[in-house]
Amino acid sequence: MSDSPGVRHVSLRSGVYADSVRLMQVSREIGDRPGVHAVVVAMATPLNLELAAGMGLAPDGDATPDQLLIALTATDDAELAAAVAAVDAALAARAERGEAQTIPARTIGAGLDGAADPALAIVSVPGQYAVAEAADAIAAGRSVLVFSDGVPVEHEVALKRAANDAGVLVMGPDCGTAIVSGLALGFANVVRRGPVGLVAASGTGAQQVSCLLDAAGVGVSHVLGVGGRDLSEAVGGLATLDALAALNADPATEHVLLVSKPPAPSVAARVAEVAQALDVPVRSAALSAEQPDLTAAVEALLADLGVAVPQWPSRPGTADAVPAGAVLKGFYSGGTLADEAMLIAAPVLGDVRSNTPLRPELDLGTDLGARGHVVIDFGDDALTVGRAHPMIDPTLRLEAIAGLAESGEPAVLLLDVVLGHGADPDPAASLVPALQAAGLPAVVALVGTEADPQGWSRQADALAEAGAAVFASNAAAVRHALALMGDQA
Amino acid sequence: MTEPLGGLLSAPPTIVAAGVEVFSAALRQQGAGVTDVDWRPPGFGSADDLTQLALDPRRAAANRVAVERVLAAGSVLVDVRPAREVLDLPDRMLLHSGPPLTWETASGPMRGALIGACLFEGWASSVEDAERVLAAGEIALDPCHHHRTVGPMAGVTSPSMWMWCLADPAGGGQAWCNLNEGLGKVLRMGAFSDEVLTRLRWMRDVLGPVLQQAVRSRPEPLDVKAILAQMLQMGDEGHNRNRAGSLMALRELSPSIVAVDAPARDVAEVLRFIGGNEHFYLNLGMPTAKLAMDAARDVAGSTMVTVMSRNGTEFGVQTAGTGDRWFTAPANTPVGLFLGDYGPDDANPDIGDSAIMETYGVGGFSMAAAPAIVRFVGGTVPDALATTERMYQLTLAENPAMQIPIMGFRGSPTGIDVLQVARTGWLPQINTGMAGRVAGTGQVGAGLVQPPQACFEQALAALAEESRAA
């Protein structure tokens, strides 16, 4: 309570009504004026009259609850008059309607609430939080593509079991490529639609296969990614089996091709057994020492379809002779393409060391500049911590090319360049100057289609201009590099 | 044969994406409908605990069971009886709102209400005497919630007070609440002057017996849940605004009240008292919500909140998956508007069992039904809508019985999911009265408040621990 009462105004008005919340707002607004000590603007109910009396502001005479009591004290007459006028103005004021606001969903669950079917969730939040978002989708009866990596394998198994129960599919974790009903998700190429369904535990493998099919005039119905670990012992092919069942029931899918890095043998056997029982024919392009070549798998599928194998697109390079003792340096952005390169090269060159080796004893560790035959997967998780995938950010690979040139080690450079949605909009723009500066014989596996935003021929021509030999087939590129090294091989 | 993967292979899907937005642009270019979730790291909780609960195979079914019990619960008024009879209280026990507390930890308004109740019951001859017996522990204190009871503000319930007796015809549950005293200087706000005690005695001697006769004489029990449903369509949210509900309750009860065998002036006074109290319905709404939330108790694996309640010192939370265990933390102080020249310094921290209304999905959760309420914090009509929109993201279901017209008659957001509170980082919105912090003051204002996050942090950790052990 103020220690200087100043002047006071107490009045009652009839025929004015405002609800108590509005009047409390007005009281506060007026009370905030510097010249005002105490204020009650309220309907003259017994409770409010008692409050006013307690403040020494009781009105004279009888008040009734339908009257408005305006009672205040101020420092002087001018402040008092201004305050009373401010009460009138405040009572007359109309609240701003305010901007209508919508509350965006904060979780996949909230986002899927009311989403039009068919709906698909895509989760690319940090790995430790991805499970809750993916679980939302499953609970909502929707399939989910989990782009996030770093999801523990036991959580992957739990998600995939729940998805199986719910009749939906978990693509991933660490799934970067899918095409669903013609919609390209993540890193995927612009390919024609057609009768071949892909089940892919490998993103770049699926891109290679779908692009070669496209070049042969054959389209895909769907590319269902299942995550790189799906065919491991721990996961047991849970999503692969669900994806096979879905494609089996899909009228648009007439053939299925299974694309994978080398799977666990027991899981591969189990999947093969299930695939055998389906109506739709299933061919495996899972890589192994016995089946090292994705292009060969595509050619076998084309034979199944009665489609002639075309001349796979390529551009000749300028290199015809390489120095004696040259080694193979495969600098890849796609893990499966790197595996394929090693599987094809190893029988010819012997051991090839790698950060993602075929056998543990061939592990490079962190020494990316190691001498000898080397294939590096720059897309490996260990090399993408804190930076974008090499299909988006070429920095690390460009540095490695420059480092190799500087080292003076005689070498044939083998590269992949992956086009399509999500990838570098013009990879040749940075690669061409790097190749020119390095001056090394170079072979490029260019995975893409003419319809891709980057355009296969546009990129191929630019790379060929810089002297590189370019192949749509990674297997063909590897074999060309080996041929260049001919004598030592 | 049903289509595989929910039709995903039959037509291009609409996309709901959380995380990096790099792919969303490419999807839009292909003509896909894309909703980018406004994802952010969880507001609290370890990633391990969140994942443990997200993957608990019991959770979805358990939450469905819990929330369906909440939605199925009804509420009818079956009797009015003294607390002594209803609760079978031991001699010299007082019930209070919120989680357990002691005289030492009790806030001003709680102490004031306990003092007033001792005087009312004749357990003390003066305020000083009441303080002495309470400080000496001669009066046992126990939460209302431990007795299927709820009480607004201090919630102090003594043997001689009359109780609304409500029953859930669907689940067979029972719940009780004392009678609302009105506004201003009232016991539940911590006042204990002669005026307060005189009113309590009149309620004991006149109001209670008249209401008992009236309620017992009705041909059908009053459907209290149906009134709550209608209130939401009439500008009330059932916690801070009960005007329409109070009038409807009066309308329903008055034919029976005037037929009671009592002096006409008593009947007139009862009708005047009820008609003059805009919060008369609150003490019927709260046990209605309590019936529904108690129906969902003890559902193993459920992460749904069954109690939010405050004792003026601490805020307490219980969940369906953790039984009677309280998760408590110091209560926040509401923000809002003040009566007379009271100000923020006069307000006590959050108090009362009335947050059972929000737990049930009305009150602050149905703010959109009562935009007048957001003006307590200078808010606008869109703010009211936004509040309810946010609460939908914290809750498991929409209550089809409690429709909010301005939301297109969507049901109220019902069944707070601890996991969703953690993931969104949004805390439940509660509308509340404010008691003066000094014992004896009474009401100083009304406003909005949120629970302390720590209650939900503890609940999440306990649910995850239970999940691991299951």
Write the layout of secondary structure elements.
The complex is a heterodimer of chains A (489) and B (470).
Chain A: E1 7-13, H1 20-31, E2 36-43, H2 46-54, E3 68-74, H3 77-92, H4 108-112, E4 119-124, H5 127-139, E5 143-146, H6 153-166, E6 170-171, E7 177-180, E8 183-186, E9 193-200, H7 203-215, E10 220-225, H8 238-248, E11 255-260, H9 265-276, E12 282-286, H10 294-305, E13 314-315, E14 327-332, H11 335-349, E15 353-354, E16 374-377, H12 381-384, H13 395-407, E17 411-418, H14 427-438, E18 442-447, H15 456-465, E19 469-471, H16 474-484
Parallel strand pairs in A: 4-5, 5-6, 9-10, 9-11, 11-12, 14-16, 14-17, 15-16, 17-18, 18-19
Antiparallel strand pairs in A: 1-3, 2-3, 7-8, 13-19
Helix pairs in contact in A: 1-3, 5-6, 7-10, 11-16, 13-14, 14-15
Chain B: E1 14-19, H1 22-29, E2 34-36, H2 47-55, H3 59-72, E3 76-82, H4 83-87, E4 93-96, H5 108-121, H6 127-135, E5 140-143, E6 162-167, E7 174-178, H7 194-217, E8 222-223, H8 224-231, H9 243-258, H10 264-275, H11 282-295, E9 305-311, E10 314-319, E11 327-330, E12 335-338, E13 351-352, H12 356-359, H13 381-392, E14 395-404, E15 410-416, H14 418-424, E16 430-435, E17 443-449, H15 453-469
Parallel strand pairs in B: 1-2, 4-5
Antiparallel strand pairs in B: 3-6, 3-8, 6-7, 9-10, 9-13, 10-11, 12-17, 14-15, 16-17
Helix pairs in contact in B: 2-15, 3-11, 5-6, 5-7, 7-9, 8-9, 9-10, 14-15
- Known CATH architecture of the largest domain in chain B: Alpha-Beta Complex
The CATH topology of the largest domain in chain A is given as: Rossmann fold
**Which blocks of ≥5 consecutive residues of chain B have pLDDT under 50?**
none
Tally of strands of chain A = 19
Oligomeric state, counting identical vs distinct chains: heterodimer
CATH level-two architecture of the largest domain in chain A: 3-Layer(aba) Sandwich
- Principal-axis shape of chain B equals globular
CATH homologous group name of the largest domain in chain A: Succinyl-CoA synthetase domains
Task: Give the overall pLDDT of chain B as a whole number.
Answer: 95
Largest sheet of chain A: 7 strands, mixed
**Number of helical segments with 4 or more residues of chain A:** 16
Largest sheet strand order of chain B = 7-6-3-8
Number of strands of chain B: 17
CATH topology label of the largest domain in chain B = Enterococcus faecalis V583 fold
Strand content of chain B: 15-25%
| Through-space gap between termini of chain B | 37 Å
